[in-house]
Write a structure and sequence with these properties.
The protein is mainly beta. Helix content is 0%, strand content 56%. The strands form 4 sheets. Strands 1-20-17-22-15-13-14 form a 7-stranded mixed sheet, with no helix packed on it. β2 and β3 form a beta hairpin. The relative contact order is 0.18.
Length: 236
């Protein structure tokens, strides 16, 4: 079964300093049909204006991954971790038994565009943890690169769940395959550009969910620029 989630059908909130689209129910956007996909609970596409940001606030028992697409994202949390993320960098924060953090636009002139992703962990009340890492764009051009994985398998950031986040960059007409196992579930999200997925054409913000699928899916870059796609490999 393939589940379609067009970009235009997502939840939307515009607070002036923040323009956010919600793939799944979040904050004031609530749709009982879209509460998550397995342990994947949140994909928010956020654009934060210069000078804007999220004041210190708390989280617990959630794996939080941020992927910067454009601009800069400044992070600081109650564990003492802090840093600025730029395009190509990925941040993992395991909230564990509780952590407070803030996120602000780290560029005084440019809007920061990033994806914030929440994955429910396979354990509760663990020690909070944090890591950020740069991933070379060339390493995922035309092939999958692992952004996050269980305990850091295959070079990913070490999330606390039997789930992996893979990424690929496709030039126009370039192809890559995604192998589906029907014992797992998969969520494919187009972060940028346009891509053909089988007979479907997806643009930035569009997504597909795959359940009970055992096959190889071919992705092909479309349009004039590069496409960037995220693939979540999730437990059933």
């Amino acid at each position: 079964m393939i589940i379609e989630r067009p970009s235009a059908s997502r939840g939307h909130a515009n607070h002036g300093w923040l323009d956010s689209h919600h793939t799944f129910s979040f904050a004031n956007y609530h749709d009982p049909k879209w509460m998550g996909f397995g342990p994947l609970r949140v994909i928010n596409e956020d654009r934060v204006a210069p000078g804007g940001g999220f004041a210190p606030h708390g989280h617990a028992n959630m794996e939080i991954i941020s992927v910067v697409l454009d601009g800069a994202l400044a992070h600081k949390d109650s564990t003492g971790s802090e840093g600025v993320l730029r395009p190509g960098e990925v941040q993992w924060m395991s909230a564990g038994h509780g952590v407070r953090h803030s996120e602000y636009n780290g560029d005084p002139e440019q809007t920061t565009h990033f994806l914030q992703i929440w994955i429910q962990p396979d354990r509760v009340n663990a020690e909070p943890a944090y890591e950020q890492r740069a991933f070379e764009r060339d390493a995922r051009r035309g092939r999958w690169d692992t952004f996050a994985s269980p305990e850091g398998r295959d070079g990913g950031l070490p999330i606390r769940q039997d789930a992996s986040l893979l990424a690929v960059v496709l030039e126009p007409r370039a192809t890559v395959e995604a192998t589906m196992d029907d014992s797992r579930a998969y969520w494919l999200h187009v972060a940028a550009g346009t891509v053909h997925v089988g007979e479907r054409t997806l643009q930035a913000g569009d997504a597909l969910g795959f359940v009970d699928e055992s096959s190889q899916v071919v992705l092909q870059g479309a349009g004039e620029g590069e496409a960037e796609v995220l693939l979540f490999d999730l437990p059933r």
